[in-house]
Amino acid sequence: MSSRILIVEDEVKLAHFIELELKYEGYEVTVANDGFSGIASARESNPDLIILDWMLPGISGPEICRRLRNTGSKVPIVMLTAKDEVSDRVTGLDAGADDYLVKPFSIEELLARIRAHLRRSVGEDTDILQFTDLRLNRSTREVYRGDRFIELTAKEFDLLEYLISHPRQVLTRDRILETVWGYDFMGDSNIIEVYIRYLRLKLEADGEKRLIQTVRGVGYVMRE
Description:
Elements: E1 4-8, H1 12-24, E2 28-32, H2 35-45, E3 49-53, H3 61-70, E4 77-81, H4 86-95, E5 99-102, H5 107-122, E6 128-131, E7 134-137, E8 142-145, E9 148-150, H6 154-164, E10 171-172, H7 173-181, H8 191-203, E11 212-215, E12 219-222
Helix pairs in contact: 2-3, 3-4, 6-7, 6-8
């Protein structure tokens, strides 16, 4: 079955160009030219991925992101914009966008990013992730160690989700930083160590075995 892609773009010629390219690649495409129809289409058509312009009549792209994420939607969102400042990119990503392309962009790059996000989302169909006695629910964002409920912050959950979704794979610090914090993160890279420490304190609060292991000089791995 073809993946369904929603384009929300007020530049009619650009939207039509992207639509033709995507249809040529075999995707099912829906187009909306303003924010209100865009968010309505997102909720009604249940797309597999959304290509979303930043500046839209009615509702802005970042606001559409926020509204969709607030309803629990996990649909991959690739944002298109003429804004190239780091602060703008951070705003879009913080609003819930998964990726970011600055206009003018290469259609080949857009297609490549679409394929990458669709592959990733297909691999994330299962809501429940489990490793030994640790259980994580993507849908409810709940985490249990055995029967013990573990309360995590949003970023702690994101980091644990990434680790547990790649069991026994050594993940480099750069890869973790790019995936969990975003490739535009400008803060201290030691943030990873800080959050790993937070997770260990919570996951091992009752003396349980350590599951997040340090691979010295490389990164971290989820293993016994």
